[in-house]
Amino acid sequence: MASSRVKKSTIVRAKFVRTGFGLLERVAPALGGRLALRIWCTPRHARPSAAPQPGVRHLVPLHGSTVLAETWGSGGPVVYLVHGWGGHRNQLGRFVAPLVAAGYQVVAFDALSHGESGPGTLGRRATLPEFADALTAVVAEFGPAHGIVAHSMGATATALAVLDGLSATRLAFIAPMADPMAQTHLFARFLGFGDRVHRAFIARLEKVAGRAMSSFDIPSRATGQTLPPLLVVHDERDREVGHVNGEALASAWPDAKLVSTNGLGHHRILTDADVLHEVVTFVTAPTPAVPC
């Protein structure tokens, strides 16, 4: 009975929001764009879970705030774990033990406005460039990235950082978003606004991000570049970030392999034993020597 009441309440709120945005589309698109930006930049936080094994905690300064990082192992090449939008560092915790056992140091962190990290420049809201900046700051703190394993929007942020100059030997993206601009149109349909609010929303988003939306189109930017080898793992039934994103990214990246799963969705894919094995095997594989 309680579940039924919650479902009805959610439907009522959704109708109210869509009606409101429909009105703003007609009479106040600038206000609609401002409200859309607020919703877009506000993460829906996943409930934090405990790490499989506690690591050593560190605070890394960034933009006048702090990023909470956690490390496991020591002395070996470094592999970084990057959570997705609304996530936290322990979501990729299953990767820690096998990577440490293979001789790697593992570093995971909470992006600004996520988990135990401090707020970003927008308070408890966040932006994709801040995600990328957090990764870059953590790599500067703990050393060159042999590998980066990233999920969802964290994969997009990782790709953005790499395309902007961050060095890494191997990358593994799980359920990546290929182009956030395409996602903004799905967002518009979900909230019920049209082109006028969408234009105002994108203008504000670009101003906050400090760069054009075209710079986030990872497949377009990756085409023809010299980039590290990439493994893309994506579920064919992912309802949050469609499988087409993984296909597009793997097709455009110069040295990429796509592994498709079926039935794991957007989050269970992070705990699947076969996915874990595939990713760890790829990240720890010997790097071929470059001919002289």
UniProtKB/TrEMBL annotation:
Domain of life: Bacteria
Ranges for domain AB hydrolase-1: 79-275
InterPro entries, per database record: AB_hydrolase_1, AB_hydrolase_fold, AB_hydrolase_sf
Molecular function per GO: catalytic activity
GO CC entries: membrane
Protein name: TAP-like protein
